[in-house]
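Fill-in record for Outer membrane protein.
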Amino acid sequence: MKKSLLAAALCVLVSASAYAQSATEGPWLVRARAVHLDSANGDTTPLALSINNKWLPELDISYFFTPQIAAELVLTVPQKQTLSAGGTPIGSFKHLPPTLTVQYHFQANGFKPYVGAGLNYTRISAVNLPAGVSVDRNSFGPALQAGVDIPLAKNLYFNLDVKKVYIRTDVAAGGSKLGTFKVDPVLFGIGLGWRF
Protein backbone atom coordinates (compact mmCIF):
# COMPACT_ATOMS: atom_id res chain seq x y z
CA MET A 1 0.00 0.00 0.00
CA LYS A 2 2.81 2.39 0.94
CA LYS A 3 4.65 1.58 -2.29
CA SER A 4 1.50 2.21 -4.33
CA LEU A 5 0.90 5.57 -2.65
CA LEU A 6 4.55 6.53 -3.14
CA ALA A 7 4.39 5.60 -6.84
CA ALA A 8 1.17 7.58 -7.29
CA ALA A 9 2.64 10.61 -5.52
CA LEU A 10 5.74 10.41 -7.71
CA CYS A 11 3.60 10.29 -10.86
CA VAL A 12 1.64 13.35 -9.72
CA LEU A 13 4.85 15.29 -8.98
CA VAL A 14 6.42 14.42 -12.32
CA SER A 15 3.22 15.30 -14.18
CA ALA A 16 2.87 18.57 -12.27
CA SER A 17 6.48 19.46 -12.99
CA ALA A 18 6.10 18.73 -16.70
CA TYR A 19 2.83 20.70 -16.80
CA ALA A 20 4.38 23.71 -15.03
CA GLN A 21 7.31 23.68 -17.43
CA SER A 22 5.12 23.38 -20.52
CA ALA A 23 2.75 26.06 -19.22
CA THR A 24 5.57 28.59 -18.85
CA GLU A 25 7.67 27.73 -21.91
CA GLY A 26 5.81 25.27 -24.08
CA PRO A 27 7.16 22.06 -25.61
CA TRP A 28 8.51 23.56 -28.86
CA LEU A 29 11.90 25.21 -29.43
CA VAL A 30 12.87 26.61 -32.83
CA ARG A 31 16.42 27.76 -33.46
CA ALA A 32 18.08 29.58 -36.36
CA ARG A 33 21.84 29.08 -36.52
CA ALA A 34 24.85 30.01 -38.60
CA VAL A 35 26.92 26.83 -38.82
CA HIS A 36 30.53 26.32 -39.88
CA LEU A 37 31.19 23.00 -41.60
CA ASP A 38 34.74 21.74 -40.97
CA SER A 39 35.28 18.55 -42.99
CA ALA A 40 37.54 15.75 -41.80
CA ASN A 41 38.38 15.03 -45.49
CA GLY A 42 39.31 11.40 -44.83
CA ASP A 43 39.98 9.51 -48.06
CA THR A 44 40.82 5.89 -48.80
CA THR A 45 41.03 6.46 -52.57
CA PRO A 46 44.33 7.28 -54.33
CA LEU A 47 42.94 10.71 -55.31
CA ALA A 48 43.51 12.64 -52.02
CA LEU A 49 39.96 14.01 -52.15
CA SER A 50 38.76 16.95 -50.07
CA ILE A 51 35.89 19.45 -49.95
CA ASN A 52 35.87 23.09 -48.92
CA ASN A 53 34.88 24.21 -45.43
CA LYS A 54 32.06 26.75 -45.35
CA TRP A 55 29.40 28.62 -43.38
CA LEU A 56 25.79 27.57 -43.94
CA PRO A 57 22.32 28.42 -42.59
CA GLU A 58 20.51 25.97 -40.33
CA LEU A 59 17.02 25.71 -38.89
CA ASP A 60 16.20 23.19 -36.19
CA ILE A 61 12.96 22.26 -34.49
CA SER A 62 12.92 20.60 -31.06
CA TYR A 63 10.04 19.02 -29.17
CA PHE A 64 10.34 18.49 -25.39
CA PHE A 65 8.68 15.30 -24.18
CA THR A 66 9.74 16.20 -20.62
CA PRO A 67 11.74 19.15 -19.23
CA GLN A 68 14.91 17.11 -19.82
CA ILE A 69 14.21 14.93 -22.89
CA ALA A 70 13.78 16.43 -26.35
CA ALA A 71 14.05 15.40 -29.99
CA GLU A 72 15.67 17.79 -32.48
CA LEU A 73 15.32 17.79 -36.27
CA VAL A 74 18.06 19.77 -38.05
CA LEU A 75 17.22 21.20 -41.48
CA THR A 76 19.05 23.24 -44.09
CA VAL A 77 19.02 23.75 -47.85
CA PRO A 78 21.19 21.72 -50.27
CA GLN A 79 24.79 22.89 -49.88
CA LYS A 80 27.16 23.13 -52.85
CA GLN A 81 30.67 21.84 -52.19
CA THR A 82 33.78 21.96 -54.37
CA LEU A 83 35.50 18.59 -54.62
CA SER A 84 39.28 18.67 -55.02
CA ALA A 85 41.87 16.00 -55.75
CA GLY A 86 45.32 16.71 -54.36
CA GLY A 87 44.23 20.31 -53.74
CA THR A 88 43.06 20.87 -57.34
CA PRO A 89 39.31 21.40 -57.93
CA ILE A 90 37.87 18.63 -60.12
CA GLY A 91 34.13 19.19 -59.71
CA SER A 92 31.27 19.81 -57.34
CA PHE A 93 28.15 18.34 -55.78
CA LYS A 94 25.33 19.36 -53.46
CA HIS A 95 24.41 17.62 -50.24
CA LEU A 96 21.29 17.81 -48.08
CA PRO A 97 22.00 16.44 -44.57
CA PRO A 98 18.89 16.35 -42.32
CA THR A 99 19.76 15.04 -38.85
CA LEU A 100 17.54 13.79 -36.03
CA THR A 101 18.90 13.65 -32.47
CA VAL A 102 17.50 12.80 -29.05
CA GLN A 103 18.80 15.17 -26.36
CA TYR A 104 19.15 15.31 -22.60
CA HIS A 105 18.91 18.85 -21.18
CA PHE A 106 20.50 19.75 -17.84
CA GLN A 107 19.41 22.58 -15.54
CA ALA A 108 22.35 24.70 -14.33
CA ASN A 109 21.62 28.13 -12.82
CA GLY A 110 19.60 29.38 -15.77
CA PHE A 111 21.96 27.97 -18.38
CA LYS A 112 20.64 24.90 -20.17
CA PRO A 113 23.43 22.64 -21.46
CA TYR A 114 22.51 19.51 -23.39
CA VAL A 115 23.97 16.45 -25.08
CA GLY A 116 22.45 14.43 -27.88
CA ALA A 117 22.90 11.51 -30.24
CA GLY A 118 21.03 10.44 -33.33
CA LEU A 119 21.06 9.66 -37.03
CA ASN A 120 22.04 11.61 -40.14
CA TYR A 121 20.84 10.96 -43.68
CA THR A 122 22.65 12.82 -46.45
CA ARG A 123 21.42 12.99 -50.04
CA ILE A 124 24.06 13.93 -52.63
CA SER A 125 22.78 15.58 -55.80
CA ALA A 126 23.81 17.87 -58.68
CA VAL A 127 27.02 15.85 -59.07
CA ASN A 128 29.45 17.46 -61.53
CA LEU A 129 32.58 15.29 -61.73
CA PRO A 130 34.98 14.17 -64.49
CA ALA A 131 33.61 11.63 -66.96
CA GLY A 132 33.57 8.13 -65.51
CA VAL A 133 33.89 9.28 -61.87
CA SER A 134 30.85 8.71 -59.63
CA VAL A 135 29.87 8.84 -55.96
CA ASP A 136 27.19 7.04 -53.96
CA ARG A 137 24.22 9.40 -53.63
CA ASN A 138 23.04 8.28 -50.14
CA SER A 139 24.78 8.25 -46.78
CA PHE A 140 23.50 7.13 -43.36
CA GLY A 141 25.56 7.65 -40.21
CA PRO A 142 25.48 8.53 -36.53
CA ALA A 143 25.50 12.07 -35.17
CA LEU A 144 26.74 13.34 -31.78
CA GLN A 145 25.90 16.71 -30.27
CA ALA A 146 26.59 19.03 -27.34
CA GLY A 147 25.45 22.59 -26.73
CA VAL A 148 23.98 25.16 -24.41
CA ASP A 149 20.98 27.51 -24.42
CA ILE A 150 21.58 30.79 -22.57
CA PRO A 151 18.47 32.81 -21.58
CA LEU A 152 18.31 36.32 -23.06
CA ALA A 153 14.67 37.22 -22.40
CA LYS A 154 11.38 35.45 -21.83
CA ASN A 155 11.41 32.34 -24.07
CA LEU A 156 14.40 33.70 -26.08
CA TYR A 157 17.78 31.93 -25.94
CA PHE A 158 21.29 32.40 -27.29
CA ASN A 159 22.55 29.03 -28.52
CA LEU A 160 25.99 27.48 -29.00
CA ASP A 161 26.12 24.01 -30.51
CA VAL A 162 28.67 21.52 -31.84
CA LYS A 163 27.96 18.32 -33.77
CA LYS A 164 30.04 15.49 -35.16
CA VAL A 165 28.25 13.96 -38.14
CA TYR A 166 29.42 10.88 -40.04
CA ILE A 167 28.91 11.36 -43.79
CA ARG A 168 30.64 8.96 -46.19
CA THR A 169 30.36 8.08 -49.85
CA ASP A 170 31.90 5.41 -52.05
CA VAL A 171 33.88 6.74 -55.03
CA ALA A 172 34.12 4.80 -58.31
CA ALA A 173 35.87 5.34 -61.64
CA GLY A 174 34.96 3.40 -64.75
CA GLY A 175 32.58 1.28 -62.71
CA SER A 176 35.29 0.14 -60.25
CA LYS A 177 35.29 1.26 -56.64
CA LEU A 178 38.33 3.37 -55.75
CA GLY A 179 37.59 3.75 -52.04
CA THR A 180 35.54 5.79 -49.59
CA PHE A 181 35.54 9.54 -49.10
CA LYS A 182 34.80 10.45 -45.47
CA VAL A 183 33.43 13.97 -45.08
CA ASP A 184 32.69 13.34 -41.36
CA PRO A 185 32.38 17.06 -40.53
CA VAL A 186 32.41 18.89 -37.22
CA LEU A 187 29.67 21.53 -37.27
CA PHE A 188 30.05 24.58 -35.04
CA GLY A 189 26.78 26.52 -34.64
CA ILE A 190 25.77 29.87 -33.14
CA GLY A 191 22.26 31.26 -33.14
CA LEU A 192 19.01 32.18 -31.42
CA GLY A 193 16.18 29.98 -30.15
CA TRP A 194 12.54 30.69 -29.35
CA ARG A 195 10.58 28.47 -26.94
CA PHE A 196 6.79 28.32 -27.21
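KEY FINDING: The domain at 26-195 is CATH 2.40.160.20 (Porin).
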